[in-house]
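Worked example 4.2. Below are the chains of a multi-component assembly; read each line carefully before continuing.
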Amino acid sequence: MKVGSLFLVPTPLDFGCDEQTALETSLPEAVQLQAAGLTYWISENARSTRACLKRISQKHPLARPLQDIVIMQLPQAVHKRGDHEGHFDARNLLEPAVQGHDMGLVCEAGMPAIADPGASVVRAAHALGISVRALVGPSSLMLALASSGLNGQQFAFVGYLPQDAAERSRRISQLEALALKTGQTQLFIEAPYRNVALFEALLRTLREDTRLALSCGLTLPGGWSLCLSRRQWQARPVPDLKAPTVFAISR
Amino acid sequence: MKVGSLFLVPTPLDFGCDEQTALETSLPEAVQLQAAGLTYWISENARSTRACLKRISQKHPLARPLQDIVIMQLPQAVHKRGDHEGHFDARNLLEPAVQGHDMGLVCEAGMPAIADPGASVVRAAHALGISVRALVGPSSLMLALASSGLNGQQFAFVGYLPQDAAERSRRISQLEALALKTGQTQLFIEAPYRNVALFEALLRTLREDTRLALSCGLTLPGGWSLCLSRRQWQARPVPDLKAPTVFAISR
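Applying the procedure described above to all two chains together yields the following structure tokens:
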């Protein structure tokens, strides 16, 4: 019996808020078609996956009625501490693929398994000999990096910075030192309600010539990207950072 | 007078070889439409940009006949040593945007300014107050990272490894030590004709439990991804790595 494939299916970056345009600006037609054809899914959040499939179904008929699509949700523990270290064994979730069905892996926004859970599922697929096929869609980190004008030949994504103010300042200085010394652009993110606090900590901590790029609400109406030196940022009003924002620093 | 925007336009990863399917699997409809509407371009390679626009024109009529599209090529020096450090001033290239025209920035494959030239143009756009808008398309690095099952919460792209065998081994060991200690996935690439040499160097150098992910020919027919320990790779025949390949290691 032939095993199925595991398709890594990206989703728009709007968390379901921009129903009019998100699909046609974010997902190639063939990706939408592929997603419409899958009946077994592993998901970070079954509700948002169902909403996304509903949006796709308005253009491409699903292989089965939405209520018959099987969506298995990754356990909460996986969301919290990440699932790339091998603590969570996802092989059971791939049973439909073992039985010959193609499956989809999907997160709430963007590419699955990047700054989001899902790595355990991909790892399990490789272990089971299930072929893994990543489909094209939005990656906020790459859109932000390209939009920054900072070094795209060498870069690192370091996730979230510490919440404690003193620890956060130390971490900012450490990342800045690394970026200035090696030229490796350092990308990081924050929960949107803490974006302004992080921005202000960056202004307090960075050297005046260090370049800081912000990309806010990427792919969304009103989204923007701007890269300025710390000195230049300081001469402007604090930007509106309510939407998801990617931060990057480099020399 | 209103200045134009700079659109960062991704391109399929097939370098023009897969005319049948590349656009519909790689670029959202709205991105193709946006590209079709632009008459001023800055490009890594004018010939491949013209070929890409020709493919797009088969579905979406261009704003002007192809021969009237203005494609300015980045100078060779920019390709060779990268253009993110501020040595090349790209402001002149953005003159059409200053005069109110939207412009496109495009590379040979994938996202512009990521593992490809273009950062100088984005930097100049920010300096000139030209709004930068990255469009969704393929990023081989993110497709490879998602497909690896390795840590996607923390990762670095380090570009090319040294060509000299001894230096390359040292660099591999250094990247491995960093990945094992911090958990930061290390991604790198090589010119396709050196992929097998790099793979063999990895097998000679890595510890037996270190996980090595290869993604070869991503988005292309016959493309594949596989992540195994060094020990497991060693027990298999050397894979066909003729297509562009992304390498990644982690614990």
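Take a moment to check your reading of the output against the notes. Residues 5-134 of chain A form a domain with the Cobalt-precorrin-4 Transmethylase; domain 1 fold (CATH 3.40.1010.10). Chain A touches chain B through 70 residues (CB under 8 Å).
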